[in-house]
């Protein structure tokens, strides 16, 4: 990986004005003496949707972008537009980081590593025989891979689109062995026997308030992990903490996926501790 003296990066997604990713990347770039610019390409104010991805990628290449982060709702739609996928991105079927180099577009997935690192740090010692996951989209696919790699026995996946949940379960069973993942049908029943709950849906974000799980289905013995980080305390985490559940907010995943993306864009090693401290200073 060759180091760059300057980096121009961006984030493509919907409703991303509050994203802390630009600040995380630029602060670490400054600390390393790099000229590091990170721009938001928010589909909402531009009145665009995923159909604009081909033009946006082409524009980024022509204007000299080093790479792009990709977030909701583009993590799967971007794949046909890329020249190459890392083994992680191919296995997960979702991309959140694209490196533009030498006329080629290479897709990576740093969400999986990011969630796994946060999980080990925040919930490393929890029981994990049965876990319920809300959401089977791009982030959900990465988190599910991380959970099974971190030793979850059985993962029960719920999604508003039942076919998407089934398709993710099939992918996971191919990778990790038959029966490790199931598409869920009965949420109260699944939660009653689970040790943990993970939300990978955008529900709980500032622009999508609410919770994917009714508070009355939570119980004190359940640990609850969240990938939404704006706000850091979602309604789901608030409900869980009120019961005394162990919780993990979305901050560590946000930071550790950014650490890896920074390294892919810049060619330099990132100081993870410095990025974590900076993220916490940015406030909830």
TrEMBL record:
NADP(+) binds at residues 135-139, 227, 250. The keyword Amino-acid biosynthesis applies. It catalyses: shikimate + NADP(+) = 3-dehydroshikimate + NADPH + H(+). The keyword Amino-acid biosynthesis applies. GO terms for biological process: amino acid biosynthetic process; aromatic amino acid family biosynthetic process; chorismate biosynthetic process; shikimate metabolic process. One of its GO terms (cellular component) is cytosol. InterPro entries: Aminoacid_DH-like_N_sf (IPR046346), NAD(P)-bd_dom_sf (IPR036291), Shikimate_DH-bd_N (IPR013708), Shikimate_DH_fam (IPR022893). Shikimate binds at residues 19-21, 71, 96, 111, 229, 257. GO terms for molecular function: NADP binding; shikimate 3-dehydrogenase (NADP+) activity. The active site is at residue 75. Its EC number is 1.1.1.25. Residues 11-98 form the Shikimate dehydrogenase substrate binding N-terminal domain. Gene3D superfamilies: Leucine Dehydrogenase, chain A, domain 1 (3.40.50.10860), NAD(P)-binding Rossmann-like Domain (3.40.50.720). Keywords: Amino-acid biosynthesis, Aromatic amino acid biosynthesis, NADP, Oxidoreductase. Homodimer. Involved in the biosynthesis of the chorismate, which leads to the biosynthesis of aromatic amino acids. Catalyzes the reversible NADPH linked reduction of 3-dehydroshikimate (DHSA) to yield shikimate (SA). Belongs to the shikimate dehydrogenase family. This is Shikimate dehydrogenase (NADP(+)). The lineage of its organism: Bacteria, Pseudomonadati, Pseudomonadota, Gammaproteobacteria, Pseudomonadales. The gene is aroE.
């Amino acid at each position: 990986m060759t180091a760059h003296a300057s980096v121009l990066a961006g984030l493509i997604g919907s409703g991303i004005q509050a994203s802390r990713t630009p600040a995380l990347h630029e602060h670490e770039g400054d600390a390393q003496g790099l000229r590091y610019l990170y721009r938001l390409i928010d589909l909402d104010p531009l009145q665009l949707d995923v159909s604009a991805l081909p033009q946006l990628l082409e524009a980024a290449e022509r204007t000299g972008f080093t790479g792009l982060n990709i977030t909701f709702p583009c993590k799967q739609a971007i794949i046909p537009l890329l020249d190459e996928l890392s083994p992680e991105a191919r296995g997960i079927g979702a991309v959140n980081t694209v490196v533009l180099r030498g006329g080629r577009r290479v897709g990576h997935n740093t969400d999986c590593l990011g969630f796994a690192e946060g999980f080990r740090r925040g919930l490393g010692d929890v029981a994990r025989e049965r876990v319920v996951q809300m959401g089977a989209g791009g982030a959900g696919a990465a988190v599910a891979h991380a959970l099974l790699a971190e030793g979850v026995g059985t993962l029960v996946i719920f999604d508003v689109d039942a076919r998407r949940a089934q398709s993710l379960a099939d992918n996971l069973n191919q990778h990790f062995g038959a029966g490790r993942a199931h598409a869920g049908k009965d949420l109260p029943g699944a939660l009653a026997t689970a040790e943990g709950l993970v939300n990978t849906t955008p529900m709980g974000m500032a622009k999508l308030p609410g919770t994917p799980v009714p508070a009355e289905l939570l119980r004190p013995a359940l640990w609850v992990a969240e990938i939404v980080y704006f706000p850091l305390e979602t309604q789901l985490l608030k409900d869980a903490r009120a019961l005394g559940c162990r919780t993990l907010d979305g901050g560590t995943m946000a930071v550790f996926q950014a650490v890896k993306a920074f390294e892919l864009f810049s060619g330099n090693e990132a100081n993870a501790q410095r990025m974590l401290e900076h993220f916490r200073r940015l406030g909830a």
